[in-house]
Amino acid sequence: MNDDPITAGVRRDDPQPLYRQIKQRIREQIDRGELGTDAKLASERELEKQYGVSRITVRQAVRELVAEGWLHSHPGRGFFVARREEAYELHLLRSFTAIAEAHGRVPASRLIDGRVCPAPAEIARPLFLPVGADVVMLKRLRCLDGQPMVLTQDWFAAGLVPGILDLDWSTGNRSLYAEIRDRYRLRPDSGRTTLSARLANEEEARLLELAPPAAVLTVEQIAYDPQGRPVNMTFSSHHPLRYPLSLDQRGQKDAAGG
Questions:
Q1: What superkingdom does the record give (predicted)?
Q2: Which of 12, 32, 51, 84 has its CA 20 to 30 A from that of 234?
């Protein structure tokens, strides 16, 4: 291993770990277009020689670039630059499925949790319910082309959606809002959206394939029917690189969220 203080732009006197420096160099190559979409990354052996570091250091850098969506792996072939995601419009009244299909992606979902429970104050108040009232909570992992993108948690007053947990939410891409529109005759018509960002918690990092510490984009939404009554609340955590957001200002009135 090279003992020079500087090798290929990596400094051993830098307080930042070597693997993070290598990550940054590779990301800079991608940003500058030196490594374009689907370009093959140099092999671990070549990177080890180029940067004068150990194989384990190279693997840590590459592993995190994969987890953060910069690279993807082809077993037996190596690592390739991932497609840089275009921004996905954020619209309360347009569904995840509709947005995915408009972008030519294949949506899917996986059930993480579904239950009836007493409403905590932060859920009860916006749903116009007393604290402790029965609410339905449905947590799903939303995917595009097999990659996890968004972790969503939907809350409903239990009386609005009787039997909704008896439906099979474990496979496929069953649309939550198609169900509440067609089965329960609920019509989201307006609402409020709040955007923020924070560090991913352990569950989010694991399900969204993020290497901690990593940030997630968070969205809190509440939808109302035409009479101004709450339909549901949704909390979602978005992979910041795979699913960047843009605000959609158009007046579309499609099904919200599901």
A1: Bacteria
A2: 84
**130/231 same-domain check:** yes
Angle at 192 between CA 186 and CA 193, to 5 degrees: 115
Question: Could you list the residue range(s) of the whole structural domain that residue 103 is in?
Answer: 88-247
- Report the C-alpha gap between 50 and 48 in whole angstroms: 6
Domain check: are 75 and 101 in the same one? no
Q: Which amino acid appears at position 215 of this protein?
A: A
Considering the domain architecture, whether residues 104 and 170 belong to the same structural domain is answered as yes
Residue ending a domain, choose from 81, 97, 120 = 81
Residue 253 domain-assigned (yes or no): no
Q: Tokens at residue 14, please?
A: 């830098």
Instruction: Please write the tens of the pLDDT for every residue from 100-147.
Output: 777 677 888 889 999 999 999 999 999 999 999 999 999 999 888 888
| Two tokens, residue 190 | 């307006």
**pLDDT tens string 200-237:** 999 999 999 888 788 898 999 999 999 999 999 999 99
In the block, tokens 């800079």 appear at 28
Q: Six-digit token pair at 242? A: 């795979």
**196 exposed, middle or buried (CB, 10 Å; 0-12, 13-18, 19+)?**
exposed
Whole-angstrom Cα distance, residue 113 to residue 154? 10
